[in-house]
Amino acid sequence: MTIIPFPLLSLTQPEVKARAKEHVARGAGAANLVYRDALTRGALAPEEVGLGSVAAEAWRRAFSVDLPEVKDIVREDGPLGETAKAVVALHDGLESEMVWIPMGRGRHTLCLSSQVGCKMGCTFCETGRMGLLRHLAVSEIVGQLLVARRVFGWSPDDPENPDGKRRHHNIVFMGMGEALDNADNVIQAIRVMNDPGGLGIAQERITVCTVGRVDGIARLKDAGFKRLNLSVSLNAATDAQRDAIMPVNRKTKLDALQAALVAYRPRRNFTLGVNYCLMPGLNDQREDATGIASFCEPLERVLVNVIPYNPGNAPLTRAPTDDEIDRFIGWLREEGLPVRKRITKGRSVMAACGQLGNVELRARAREDKRKRQLPTKS
Ligand code: SF4
């Protein structure tokens, strides 16, 4: 029986070991070394850990490591450094995008995608205009991370900062797609990233962001990550307002979302991120700040991230001015909320929040499907 190589990047080290036991003669013995090397290198190279050609061939028959190909990188300089967006081509010709965002003091945040497109339809978001083309597989999500490490120069051996502290980079699932609409694959990708036998990225360095898929929030809780971060994109404090800009709210009202978040708390000192995209004329009034405070009240520890709206190709409104942002943050603080102001990065290269995506992909995918269905001439 021919075995199709299994994507190694979709498995944790113990899972690879178990599969190797079954499909590679004496494979379990070398599994830990092969796994760590593949995750570090971004390629399956069993010879590099001292295996002979016969054993290496057996590993290649059982496992594969395929990284997406980088199609384009666009960059924008800013006061904290360069923001870069990489577009990668997937095996079926679709594309996903990821963004490398400077945070100061040599640290970065990597914004990863979980889907190609998105079905949630948030009106302020470019990806929402694409609709959902497909979920990313676990190996594609982890593959993005390995590509990012290579093209953005993120090495596991990053030197220390001048102050002697290690440089820690964070990962956020805030790229293309609603992470909890692809919950099974995102949860498994987090297990792979977190596995100390491979990448060993601490859970507290990873944040899942959701617009409010309450079923996904429950799944994430069941997955048992104690130190993982979660943030919710709130963006409106009344059901009427949220219905208008976020279709998810027509099905799951704010009280249901609030109840799911109250039930989520994985540890006592957990802080929920509450993201609020500030849109002039739509959600930037004094009463909106009061509404956010009411929503947050039963959630115990929260941190409100105020994100200035980034107009895309079909803008809902303009970007807020600095004065408008500061005024709104002042109102939130009057309400007793801890607030962080997100500095816009990557807007000029469509790499900022809400700007990822390529609406032409949908037409291209449809055309490719049509061509595949055409009878071929013999
Ligand atoms: S904001 Fe997130 S959930 Fe909403 S459409 Fe965009 S990618 Fe999807």
Gist of the model:
The chain is 35% helix and 20% strand. The protein is α/β, with parallel strands linked by helices and 378 residues long.
Q: Any overview of this molecule?
A:
Helix 6 (214-223) runs parallel beside helix 9. The chain has twelve helices and 14 strands. The chain has 378 residues and is α/β, with parallel strands linked by helices. It folds into two domains: 6-64; 69-362, Alpha-Beta Barrel (TIM Barrel), CATH 3.20.20.70. The protein has helices at 13-23, 27-41, 53-62, 138-151, 183-194, 214-223, 239-245, 248-251, 254-264, 286-296, 322-334, 360-373; strands at 6-7, 63-64, 69-78, 81-89, 95-104, 107-111, 115-117, 132-135, 170-173, 206-210, 229-233, 272-278, 302-308, 339-341. The model has no long low-confidence stretch (mean pLDDT 89). The protein is globular. The structure holds iron/sulfur cluster.
CATH superfamily of the largest domain: Aldolase class I
Instruction: Kindly state the number of beta strands.
Output: 14
- Spatial extent as radius of gyration: 22 Å
SS element count, helices: 12
Main sheet makeup: 10 strands, mixed
Percent in helix: 25-40%
Strand proportion, as a percent range, falls in 15-25%
- Going by CATH, the architecture of the largest domain would be Alpha-Beta Barrel
**How do the strands of the widest beta sheet line up side by side?**
3-4-5-6-9-10-11-12-13-14
The ligands bound in this entry are: iron/sulfur cluster
How would you sum up the global shape? globular
Distance between the termini: 30 Å
Count of separate structural domains: 2
* Mean pLDDT reading: 89
- Return the string of H and E elements: EHHHEEEEEEEHEHEHEHHHEHEHEH
Low-confidence stretches: none
The multimeric state of the shown protein is: single chain
Structural class: alpha/beta
